[in-house]
């Protein structure tokens, strides 16, 4: 069987480097184009890329041209009217409306249009979003490790050999072993030279000195330049790497007042939120809670696709949210976030209970609480009660969705980079 091995540096995507360079160079223009594109885009299209258009004036390069003056000598191929040496007046320029915006009198240029992939689209969309008020609350349960330097060791792999430290050790060893011998050798050589200059007969004494010098030199040369005991290897140990542990509790109203259109918008909002969380953070858990008159914790499939409905008692979901937090997510170990979507239609007597429960029970436990009300009419009683919570809690946010096109702007407003540290 034949096998083809592609050894090209860029392979079939040989223009990938140029594409990345282009995206870096025109990052601001591409990001603005992405923002314009997402305003009317359906979340159902999240799995696809996007066609981006950039005004031509933003991608054109400066050019040099000839001025009106001076003497030009040009050759026109296929000329039948003139011969070398003939002179004629330069034609006058003008006419047309130039480049840029199209007009009725001249030609214009279209915007530069290209398509970015799903991955590139999501990178631009999510780059300035984060979970607000994310703090490191617990490090001992970290399961990630990083390799750190931990001095030197006498054994290891050749790749970890530290040359400078090994040579330094070899020089020290040679000095320690040969230092006294070198001093003795210098003394004997000086004594030999002195005796040779003396006119007296020192034959026997010189023979003894020469023999000792020869023995010392042999012993010095026998000391190896680099010995295995000199080798030092970089020692690395696995050290626990602090990580942020976060949990997002998604609470959705599935009561009878939430018609299919509202449920669909709520589902889209949570799908987008779930996609953002799993993309932005490695260590994060998501809890799904749906409610009508009763609340229940469900899995992702049931949360988005179950058709069960009924009346509305929002406080049941808030109570279950508190129970889940206290039972499974201690505040000393987790950064806790809650996102709630509802049409705001709740029993009049239950809305004050919701406000008290959020303000007194939930807000002390969480880093951030985001409430989204899905309605095309005026704010409901739950919104009015939650407005009192927002007035006293910095990390409580509210937004309203009236149509699918509002989902992206509301999402970005709720999770934009605005809070850096916990109070």
- Average pLDDT, rounded to a whole number, is 76
What's the order of the H and E elements? Answer: HHEHEHEHHEEHEEHHEHEHEH
Distance between the termini: 67 Å
Largest sheet: 6 strands, mixed
Shape: flat
Helical stretch tally: 12
Rg, Å, rounded: 39 Å
Task: Note the main attributes of this structure.
single chain; 423 residues; alpha/beta; Rossmann fold; 3 domains; 6-stranded mixed beta sheet; two-stranded antiparallel sheet; 12 helices; 10 strands; flat
Question: If you had to describe this structure to a student in words, what would you say it looks like?
Answer:
The chain folds into three domains: 17-60 and 111-127, no CATH class; 158-235; 246-414, von Willebrand factor, type A domain (Rossmann fold, 3-Layer(aba) Sandwich). The strands form three sheets. It has a six-stranded mixed beta sheet with strand order 7-6-5-8-9-10, with helices on both faces. A two-stranded antiparallel ribbon has the order 1-2. The two termini are 67 Å apart. Helix 5 packs antiparallel against helix 6, helix 9 (314-328) runs parallel beside helix 10 (350-362) and helix 10 packs parallel to helix 11 (381-392). 39% of the residues lie in helices and 16% in strands. Residues 94-108, 136-142 and 419-423 have low confidence and may be disordered. Helix 10 (350-362) links the parallel strand 8 (335-342) and strand 9 (368-374). By secondary structure, it is α/β, with parallel strands linked by helices. It contains twelve helices and ten strands. 22% of the residues are buried.
